[in-house]
Specification:
Helix content: 25-40%
Structural class: alpha+beta
Largest sheet: 8 strands, antiparallel
Distance between the termini: 58 Å
Number of strands: 20
Strand content: 25-35%
Shape: globular
Strand order of the largest sheet: 13-12-9-10-11-14-18-16
Length: 421
Amino acid sequence: MTEHVLVVGSGRDLPGRVRATAPGTRTSVICRLDYLSRLRERAEHSRIIAVRHDASDAEWVALAAAAHAVDPFTRIATFGERDQDRCAEIGQALGLRTHTPRTVALVHDKTAMRARLRATGVDPTPSTAVSGLPALRAFVQEHGLPCVLKPARGSASVGVAVIRTGSEEELAAAYHRAGGHFDGVSGTEVLVEGFHEGPQFSVEAFSEGGEHQVVALTRKYSDPVHFVELGHVVPAELSPALQDSCRHLVEQLLSALGVESGATHTELVLTAVGPRVIETHLRMGGDEIPTLVLTATGIDLSEYVVRQTVGESVLPDLRKALSAAPVPRRSAAVWFAAPPVSGVLTAVEGADPARLTPDTDEVRLLAEPGAVCAGLESSDSRLALARTHGPNAEEALATARTALAGLVFHIRTGPAKEEAV
């Protein structure tokens, strides 16, 4: 039987890879209207259904069902975070296997996720949704400081703020930041939770049939104020015992949230009493992490996502590939350039590919002249990245920082003033 996969969202290059996986495989797409420009190889899809982003779930389901009635889908998939809830609803309505609406809701709603993890004994971190400063003060009085505020539904470190002193000014500023209106974030609900001190990590995992396999541990480096991620290195240099602790926690978390299949990206903090959960995602990691995993281990997570999408059982092959990975593995790193001052980016010097050293895989600009630099507010604030490899984490990271140090950002900081930084 040939496969016909309904892709929810754009999926970057993955729909094309799905079609290439098995002869005759076809794809159709249902996505937001503003995603049309992101679709690649549009003529290769059997159909494209574009929907307003604010259309109801019922409308998304009805449109997908109408196409299914005339040209049935055999599979459904989404490769990004946005509209995973629509994918779950469509899958349930059409009888196509994907994440359940309950699992997606638990993962997307950080308040619900925290409650579920406490109820199942996976992670005891205190948290609650607050709708005003009185509720925030009550949480601080009950659970102490420090604590962290974030939008209950959000990503890319948008709106995150840490409260350390508990002053009225700090409480108000943090609540205002977390409750703001951001792209894709409603701003109507703020989550406050206990803040964990310690180094940050992410765990890249893959699930099949409710069974979970950790693929890689990533060391993360974040801005200490707004926790925007500045760098990553794979593999994280942890003792075997700590690696086992992180793996066990993530396996428990995925089971507690009902994750049955696909790639996941879980963020942890390694505290004095062991690893604690920041959040998890039903997708591969961002920030070039899948590429770092490929460079460091030879494991192409996208390959397993694509093969599973068309119905293959891939976990045995993934485990075989992991056991065959070279030891010692080399390290792969990425580092990001933060805006050094506020203003308008006018030019960038030093991005010539000829400057790349043998250990530098890529230097890429993330902002074009005319971009407004307003501080490190989210991942979208970053100006450039350098991706590198080396014999160990320290050398890979040092090479990435050195590569970025060769860039000169010209930023106009006032009507008649320009700084080169």
